[in-house]
Amino acid sequence: MVPAPSHELKYRILGSLLFLPILILFSSGGMLTMLGGGLLSAGISYEFSTLVGRKDGGQRHIIGSLAFTSYLLGMITFIVEGISMSEAVGLLAISYLAVFIIIKQFGFILFLVMACLFSLGYLINMPGGVILILLVALAISASDIGAYFSGRLIGGAKLAPHISPSKTWSGSCGGVVAAVFTILPVIALEIYPVVTLIVGGAVIAVLSQIGDLIESHLKRRLGVKDSSRLIPGHGGFLDRFDGYLTVLPVLAVLVAADLVGLPDIDLNIMSFR
Questions:
Q1: Domain residues for 142?
Q2: How many CB atoms lie within 10 A of CB 147?
Q3: Entry pTM
Q4: 185-217 pLDDT, tens per residue?
Q5: By the 8 A CB rule, do 128 and 265 touch?
Q6: Total domains present in the chain
Q7: Residue whose C-alpha is closest to residue 200's, from 250, 161, 245
Q8: From CA 91, how far away is CA 128, in angstroms rounded?
Q9: What is the residue-wise DSSP string for 61-124?
């Protein structure tokens, strides 16, 4: 039975509150940030390995361990001197190819999960990296909420009916608009110019929606509605963070190439250095 919209909204709010402890850890800086990122990575790794285990249960532990190791490798890349980004990516690619030989049918989504968790581990250890991720999280959340309500209110043509029948073009556009307008007030902090925020908010919204569709395609292939039932109103970790699968790897590449600057903010005291 599908809950009524008001009940569904309550479930979504309750589910969001369950993320507060992880968000607090993630925003605390230092080892607590690493712990928060580790908890999130462990949840995503476990759920992904469990989903894939429906088709090939014998490899689920290898897949889950490799996915979580990607997060650790991302952290080591920045923390340990002498390890370059290219060397870490090369090691990640070798590990991916080794497992891809075993689980060919889920190779692309495995690549996204590994790249996402590697990028998370890499970015959170960079000065200003956590602030940048929190800004991205703000845009993604706004896109999700905007798409949900505009899709329900306006309806119209389906975005990808064979993958996710409930998603509409109106919802997609509403998500982009919501992401842009939500992130625009950041201009007051003088971190990024207004054009960067507008373009960035739109790109983040589009990429996050692509990640959502990719995860929806995986669940459709496996014949499941949610990645798990851990979070009321949201399903599981992958259901809530599917947008990050495509956003974080792109963001990490742009940061590593110096195409996107990092906010010059001290997370511990939340003031400019």
A1: 5-272
A2: 27
A3: 0.81
A4: 888 777 888 999 999 999 999 999 999 899 888
A5: yes
A6: 1
A7: 250
A8: 26
A9: HHHHHHHHHHHHHHHHHHHSTT--HHHHHHHHHHHHHHHHTT-GGGHHHHHHHHHHHHHHHHHT
